[in-house]
Amino acid sequence: MHAWPASEVPALPGQGRDLRIHDTATGAPVTLQPGPVARLYVCGITPYDATHMGHAATYNAFDLVQRVWLDTKRQVHYVQNVTDVDDPLLERAERDGLDWTALAEQETKLFREDMTALRMLPPRHYIGAVEAIPGIVPLVERLRELGAAYDLERDVYFSVESDPHFGEVSHLDAAAMRLLSAERGGDPDRPGKKNPLDPMLWMAAREGEPSWDGGSLGRGRPGWHIECVAIALDHLGMGFDVQGGGSDLAFPHHEMGASHAQVLTGEFPMAKAYVHAGMVALDGEKMSKSKGNLVFVSRLRRDGVDPAAIRLALHAHHYRSDWEWTDQVLRDAVARLERWRAAVSRPDGPAAEDMVEAVRAALADDLNAPEALAAVDRWVARQEEAGGTDGSAPGVVSRTVDALLGVAL
User: Fold this and answer.
1) String of b and e for 76-97 (b: at least 16 CB within 10 Å)?
2) How many distinct structural domains can be found in the chain?
3) How confident is the model at residue 290, as a pLDDT?
4) Candidate from 84-93, 201-210, 213-222, 233-242 with smallest mean pLDDT
5) Fewer CB atoms inside 10 Å of the end CB: C or N, the chain?
């Protein structure tokens, strides 16, 4: 599966700072010091509806991670999946009388277009669950050989008790885990499971649903968590730098995935940091497909909204915060974009070196994009009030905003 085209990232003078970011697993900030190649895995969409502002906020956060790393002169090995076969996709296809593969292709194409318009840097590897199945099957078989998986009416489940580190990503108690498991794709009340929290690794073929040859597992399709594990281990290996996604993925998805990988490899941890973006609400409720309260990037684009303004609206909120999308949020972003573009269109301005370092410092400090915006705002205010004599300053500001915030002025 192909990703989307990359926009050029301007090189800035000097060098950026190492990223200090909040790790869900430790509950504290950690300073990441990758090698020459930083490794990032971010969980992708289930393509039955794309791309709402909650998606955009999540991928915006991890685009900033890449940009901070690139500014330190590192390369970035970024991997993202597409869950292109799953119950929600099949249910939407059946409801609307669509072929599920055509629906997945349609929504994935739209997602790529939105990411291109927003100037999100693409992953090096963009992998669909379906194409990953040949690598998933041996992992499930191996877990079964290790005694970490068991069969239940032809389905195969992972035993969470096989991983001594289970629970160390989300740090939730059993009652909270059980509740979230039921809400987020699990089946804690299914009779016959060894532990209510045990997740499915391989679902035996159901009548009328797609299935694939699973070797000794029989025909079926993979569970959600093992999909990402197979892709991450194949392309990044264990101990990669950041496992990312929305905060609703900390449990069960990232918790279960970590346990799968740790049992398979005998190594700990799967990722050096688990990083989670907050949720975006509309009209007081979390933006989600089930509630139908979605603001789509593609719809805003069709309405003539500049994608750069959408990115500035996202940057105005710290990535870990839960916040609400409103018309005022967008109006503020449009006004900021107009001010910034007017300021850099002048032939000279006040010196911009301090602004560059302030933006770098803000982003290196747990991706503090609101403070980065404030640093640019301060330069713009000086430009508006008194101008300046540095002919290079507007270009420096433009390149900094482009390189570190992904916004073209």
Assistant:
1) bbbbbbbbbbbeebbebbeeee
2) 2
3) 64
4) 84-93
5) N
| Contacts of 144 by beta carbon, 8 Å cutoff, 6+ apart | 150, 151, 156
Give the tens place of pLDDT for each residue, 364-394. Answer: 999 999 999 999 999 999 999 988 999 999 9
With pLDDT > 90 as the criterion, what percentage of the chain qualifies?
A: 95
Amino acid code (one letter) for 35: G
Torsion of CA 39, 148, 198, 152, to 10 degrees: 130
Q: Could you read off the pLDDT of 235-255 as tens digits, one per residue?
A: 999 999 999 999 999 999 999
| pLDDT digit string, tens, across residues 76-124 | 999 999 999 999 999 999 999 999 999 999 999 999 999 999 999 999 9
The verdict on residue 305 lying in a domain is no
d(CA 86, CA 278): 24
181 and 252 co-located in one domain: yes
Predicted structure pTM score:
0.96
Instruction: Kindly report the number of other CB atoms within 10 A of residue 181's CB atom.
Output: 21
Whether residue 355 is found in the same domain as residue 258? no
Report the C-alpha gap between 42 and 267 in whole angstroms: 20
Q: How confident is the model at residue 293 (pLDDT cuts 50, 70, 90)?
A: confident
38 and 138 assigned to the same domain: yes
Contacts of 275 (CB under 8 A, 6+ apart): 21, 22, 23, 24, 61, 62, 65, 242, 243, 244
Q: Average pLDDT in the 35-46 region?
A: 97
Burial of 237 (0-12, 13-18, 19+ CB in 10 A): middle
In sequence order, the 6+-apart residues with CB closer than 8 A to the CB of 2 are 126
